[in-house]
Amino acid sequence: MPRGRRGVLDLAPGPATDLVVLFRRLARAGTLNNTSIAAKAGLSRSYVGELFNGRKSPSPSTAARLATVMGATAAEAGRARRLAEQLQELQRYERGREAPAPGSGPAADLWDICVAFVLALDDAHNGLRDCARGRHTGELGEATHLAVHNSGLYAQRERLLISGSPALVAAGETVFLALIEIRRAVGRGAGLDTAQYHGAYHPFAEAMWSFRGAVRAEFGQAALSPQLLERPGRSDRDQCERCGS
To answer: pLDDT digits over 58-78, tens only?
Structure first.
């Protein structure tokens, strides 16, 4: 496999790269060498080296534990866990897909782009929810911008804009802009139980389902109805304790 600078594998944009970058940043900021980090985390030194270079993928609990050992904040350890969860999800999709037929590479790439975009949206939303709970450092507005930036969402959006059909791009932009509305509401001080947060969240939840539907249509899959998933609707409004009737 090709390698980038300082021994880091050339990984595609996404959770694998973001996790390696987070680990390496924490290691540089700390005072422990790889041997000490491995010992404190209960891991082998060689395995830690492979994690730092992107050759191995940790479990979510291992990612969080390793980040904590290196002096991560609770938010950073939580981000390490979420990135590892996203990476596991991507790997499950990869294992579950049949081998593509000859000439179907671009379609397979587009599938990966769509999945990575959804996972980045979810990671950004989780980061914004942490900000709304007061689980952030520094100024609130800056923290909300970092929550979106650190999710890798902007990179995944660019991949979708370049590769997606008009229908996919339109659905993707709708959910992206809905996520930005949550960022604005939280940045202005909206907590999870406020009307401002819920007013932004429910359109985002509905747009997420619309994007999933657009992806399924793109790949010839049948639409999913809320009833099939035992949900009253796509926006979560009906089952929301604050907004439901």
So the answer is: 888 889 999 999 999 999 989
Instruction: Give the whole-angstrom CA distance, residue 169 versus residue 161.
Output: 6
Show Cβ contacts of residue 221 under 8 Å, excluding neighbours closer than 6 positions: none
Please report the DSSP string for 200-216 in residue order: HHHHHHHHHHHHHHHHH
Which of the four pLDDT bands, split at 50, 70 and 90, describes residue 161? Answer: very high
CA separation for the pair 230, 243 (Å, rounded): 19
Structure tokens belonging to residue 13: 């944009």
What digits encode the pLDDT tens for the residues 129-149? 999 999 888 899 999 999 999
Give the gyration radius of the chain's Cα atoms. 19
First to last CA, the chain: 55
Query: What is the model's pTM?
Result: 0.57
Token couple for 143:
């923290």
Output the CA angle 4-6-12, nearest 5 degrees.
30
Helices vs strands, H then E, count in the chain: 10, 0
